[in-house]
Design brief:
Layout (H helix, E strand, L loop, with lengths): L6 H33 L5 H11 L8 H13 L4 H31 L3 H44 L7
Helix pairs in contact: 1-2, 1-4, 1-5, 2-3, 3-4
Length: about 160
């Protein structure tokens, strides 16, 4: 009996889901940054909100770019410490929502990846392939997971007496 579903088609579907999820996360991040930075009276807040949204495509360290830009701009523009604290609070809220709500709901569960597996893939990708490996680690892991499940299911279907984990 042939396993249902072509792994290549499933891989394309998973990559499409990954890209769509990343675009949704970037859009939500942009809106949240814009709201928080406007409240904090950040100069050029629309630009920094867009930069923050684009930087959400860079795992882990991308969020530090808008934080740095806003912090330096606020200090150079001689804003008060309250505005700086509000801008930092807005950045922190975006990071918490992205890390604990958006990514688990939009990426981890639909792609079938656990947080530890994603972390290890990011670590291995960056160590072995540098920044490119860091960017491609999660989609490569998702595709590898599709093929692993396909071949595991195929082997289980071929050996009916053997139903181990």
């Amino acid at each position: 009996m042939v396993p249902s579903g072509n792994p290549f088609r499933q891989s394309v579907r998973v990559l499409g889901l990954f890209i769509r999820s990343q675009l949704i996360i970037a859009s939500i991040d942009t809106i949240l940054y814009a709201t928080g930075f406007a409240i904090a009276h950040v100069p050029w807040w629309p630009l920094f909100a867009l930069i923050g949204g684009f930087c959400s495509f860079i795992p882990s360290i991308g969020s530090l770019i808008p934080l740095t830009l806003v912090g330096v701009t606020m200090l150079l523009a001689d804003r008060n410490w309250t505005d700086l604290a509000i801008a930092f609070g807005a950045w922190l809220v975006v990071q918490v929502l992205e890390g604990f709500v958006l990514q688990p709901v939009l990426l981890s569960r639909p792609l079938g990846l656990g947080a530890l597996a994603v972390f290890l893939a990011l670590l291995a990708g960056s160590v072995f392939f540098g920044p490119v490996g860091f960017l491609l680690a999660v989609p490569v892991l998702a595709v590898a997971n599709v093929f692993w499940r396909h071949f595991r299911d195929r082997d289980l279907e071929r050996s009916p007496g053997k139903h181990g984990p």
